[in-house]
Write a structure and sequence with these properties.
Elements: H1 10-20, H2 35-44, H3 56-64, H4 74-92, H5 95-105, E1 107-108, E2 112-113, H6 115-123, H7 132-140, H8 154-170, H9 176-183, H10 194-197, H11 202-218, E3 235-238, H12 242-267, H13 271-275, H14 278-285, H15 288-295, H16 300-307, E4 311-315, E5 322-326, H17 328-336, E6 340-346, E7 353-357, E8 375-377, H18 383-392, E9 401-402, E10 408-409, E11 415-416, E12 427-429, H19 431-436, H20 440-450, H21 452-461, E13 480-482, H22 483-490, E14 498-500, E15 505-509, E16 525-527, H23 531-546, H24 552-555, E17 565-570, E18 576-583, E19 586-593, H25 604-607, H26 609-612, H27 614-625, H28 631-635, H29 643-648, E20 654-656, H30 658-670, H31 687-725
Antiparallel strand pairs: 1-2, 3-15, 4-5, 6-7, 6-19, 8-13, 9-12, 10-11, 12-20, 14-16, 17-18, 18-19
Helix pairs in contact: 1-7, 1-8, 3-4, 3-5, 7-8, 8-9, 12-27, 18-20, 18-21, 18-23
Length: 726
């Protein structure tokens, strides 16, 4: 927000001139008195951060026309360019106009641009109402916006503010009495979160910024200069859909607010740190403040003592950020306990990224859980790739595979015996049933039959570039892969076997209207899976939603009519929860977990992907299906299965042996009263009880369908009889 000279408090000008350019009103753009210092420190010594000699006008020139990289003597050439520009600015504008332009274009901490925005961000007042101590704080952070960020480093920012006040006293903008009283004042921030929340898709924008910067470094202009994405007048058109992005962000907030309540209730106050003190200790040692004190030579005891002192601190909370007095150690513990999330939504028809949520709050948690560099164990969401490989290798999807446990010997000679989340080892599953109920033992047997190397090859072809160990345990998701890679891989199941790479930018246009070469992937589409294997795997994924571990997507989140398949995933000790959703026009990947994998639910019922990640997708899709503007996405259908492929899936999900059937019959006799009761499986039911109730619901549904069919048949017969009579 730009403001006029009159709309800026005079104390801001005083603080700026006293600190940055005391001869501002006398020189003509260049302060020759300071020129020698600039020549020695900046040019000859190559110290670009030395400052001190550049006038406000020269700094304005730098803001308006950022420095360029030359083949030789870049510092000298840039300085000369800024000096020439500064002289021209002085010839065109008044001193008031120059200092106003500078204050409107300079950047402050927390990606805040301009004095008006900074005043509102840090003190919730306009620039016209800034007090002297507030003006000194803002001017002080110009030396290094991150290092002197009062929200992150209050002690450092306070010291820098007092340096500015000292400069104002030195040059008689303040008397000594006033300066001393101002130095004793606390920071007293009135930080406004509203400004931070306003931008849409902050994680996406940051990823875009780094990606674009790298791309422009590799594609300079005709003069060999690197484009500046902020000042060169570029128009960048992205694939993001603002409405879907808002739906995605709202879904993350809605679910994570609830999950966090459950997590804190599950562990109790600081329970996770009492259980494992190393979690907090390790995090504290990674902080900048700890590292700085260590470099200063303080002992471990003195460092902990210093970090235990309470200071003004701003905390993230789902009820709203708050300013409190808290020690840095307690602040670290507070933020460590928050579970985070990631969501990526891609249009499989063209690879367009339509929604990207990298975390719960970009200001406090800047680690992006979508981008390729963020890798976590994927759990059972890897299983569809195993079963797709099996179909591709000619294995019959209706083949019954025993779920019994077996012991395997790994390459190191160690024994390994995978187990299932439910005690269903006496059941035989088809592929569709094993996928629907996420049966680990069957997945391992399937990958051994289909081939570990074949499975890895397909995963690579589907877009997974992360390391995939050549071991059977990858069938259970032991590999660490990014959310972006997994979402890319799942586009294969929505497109008839074509892997579609994600696209973020549609075009870039320079200020002259010239369109840059499109930033599209080298191989945007690639056929990696046969039509048959893709269609059959797609059908199995839909069974997961209609009858399996993701069935709550329909009955709890109201996604009834949308044709969607999915797969839940949970990693070792519930450290990661995943859910992948596949529909004809939208593929959605969701992850939930803590930044430190040691921070997790101890209970699988709470920590599984179906409980943590799936609801985010549920809330997201619920908003979509109720928005008429997205009717085409909600009502899109997959192509019907070819008759031969449909026959390949014409089998039960599982089969029980005679002994188990007899046990269920006995249970049915003993629990006959349940026939008229609500038989929804409870969390504390045994597997046999759940299986009994599941079978009973299926029988009831079949009886209802048979009843409807009989009624329809009677109507048809009656209608035909009436026709004969006529």
């Amino acid at each position: 927000t730009e403001v006029s000279y009159e709309a800026i408090a005079p104390v801001v000008m005083d603080a700026l001139i006293a600190t940055e350019d005391i001869r501002f009103k006398q020189h003509g753009g260049i302060d020759y008195t300071s020129m020698g210092r600039v020549l020695v420190r900046s040019i000859l010594m190559g110290d670009e951060s030395s400052g001190g000699g550049s006038t406000i006008t020269q700094q304005l020139a730098k803001n308006l026309y950022p420095r360029k990289r030359y083949w030789v003597a870049s510092m000298l050439l840039n300085k000369m360019r800024e000096m020439i520009t500064a002289i021209r600015l002085e010839n065109i504008y008044t001193k008031e106009e120059i200092i106003t332009m500078y204050l409107n274009t300079v950047s402050f901490a927390d990606q805040t641009f301009g004095i008006e925005t900074a005043a509102k961000r840090f003190f919730s007042v306009s620039a016209a109402k800034l007090k002297t101590d507030q003006a000194a704080l803002l001017v002080g952070m110009l030396k290094a916006t991150h290092s002197y960020n009062p929200r992150l480093f209050p002690e450092r920012a306070l010291a820098r503010r007092n340096v500015v006040i000292g400069q104002m006293q030195k040059y008689q903008f303040l008397d000594s009495l006033k300066a001393d009283s101002l130095k004793r004042l606390p920071l007293s921030l009135q930080y406004s979160k509203t400004l931070t929340q306003a931008p849409l898709a902050p994680y996406f924008k940051e990823y875009l910024r780094t990606t674009l910067q790298q791309w422009f470094n590799e594609h300079p202009n005709e003069e060999g200069e690197t484009y500046n994405i902020y000042t060169d007048g570029l128009k960048i058109y992205t694939t993001l859909d603002s409405r879907l992005q808002r739906y995605a962000e709202k879904a993350v907030v809605q679910q994570m607010t609830e999950v966090q309540k459950q997590f804190l209730a599950h562990w109790g106050q600081d329970g996770i740190f009492k259980s494992n003190p190393a979690i907090a200790d390790d995090a504290i040692k990674r902080t900048t403040r700890y590292q700085r004190l260590k470099e200063e030579g303080l002992s471990e005891e003195d460092i902990i003592k210093e970090l235990s002192k309470k200071i003004p601190t701003r905390l993230f909370s789902w009820r709203g950020d708050k300013e409190v007095l808290m020690s840095p150690i307690d602040s670290v513990k507070h933020h460590l306990q928050f579970l985070n999330a990631g969501l990526l939504a891609v249009d499989p028809r063209n690879g367009n990224v339509v929604a990207w949520v990298g975390g719960i709050d970009h200001e406090f948690f800047q680690y992006d859980h979508v981008r390729e560099s963020t890798k976590r164990q994927v759990g059972s969401i890897f299983k569809p790739i195993v079963y797709a490989t099996a179909v591709e290798q000619g294995i019959d999807p209706c083949e019954l595979i025993p779920a019994n446990r077996e012991t395997y010997i790994d390459k190191e000679g160690e024994e390994w015996s995978p187990r299932n989340s439910q005690v269903d080892y006496e059941v035989k599953y088809t592929m569709r049933g094993a996928m629907a109920y996420s049966v680990n033992t069957v997945a391992v047997k399937t990958i051994l039959k289909a081939g570990v190397e074949n499975t890895i090859k397909l995963a690579r072809d589907m877009g997974i570039v992360s390391e995939l160990p050549d071991v059977p345990s990858i069938s259970l998701g032991s590999a660490s892969v990014s959310l972006m890679e997994m979402t890319t891989a799942f586009t294969t199941f929505a497109t008839g076997g074509e892997r579609v790479m994600p696209v973020l930018i549609t075009s870039i246009v320079d200020q002259d209207g010239n369109v840059f070469k499109a930033m599209t992937p080298e191989e945007p589409r690639k056929k990696v899976l046969s039509d048959k294997a893709s269609a059959i795997t797609n059908a199995m994924l839909r069974t997961v939603v209609t009858e399996g571990t993701a069935s709550r997507l329909r009955w709890r989140y109201g996604v009834y009519d949308m044709e969607v398949g999915g797969k839940t995933g949970t990693t070792q000790s519930n450290a990661d929860g995943w859910f992948m959703a596949v529909s004809p026009q939208l593929v959605v990947g969701t992850w939930v977990g803590a930044d430190d994998p040691r921070i997790r639910f101890r209970n699988t019922e709470l920590g599984q992907g179906a409980s943590t990640a799936l609801p985010i997708t549920g809330y997201f899709l619920n908003q979509l299906v109720n928005d008429k503007d997205f009717k085409s996405i909600a009502e899109a259908k997959f192509p019907a299965l070819e008759p031969d492929w449909k026959d390949m899936l014409d089998c039960d999900l599982y089969e029980l042996d005679s002994t188990l059937i007899r046990r269920i019959e006995v249970m049915a006799f003993e629990r006959d009263s349940l026939l008229t009761a609500d038989t929804t499986a409870k969390a504390d039911e045994s597997f046999l009880e759940q299986l009994y109730n599941r079978k009973k619901r299926m029988f009831r549904q079949q009886e209802k369908r048979d009843s409807i069919a009989r009624a329809d048949l009677i109507k048809i017969i009656e209608s035909e009889n009436e026709s004969d009579d006529n």
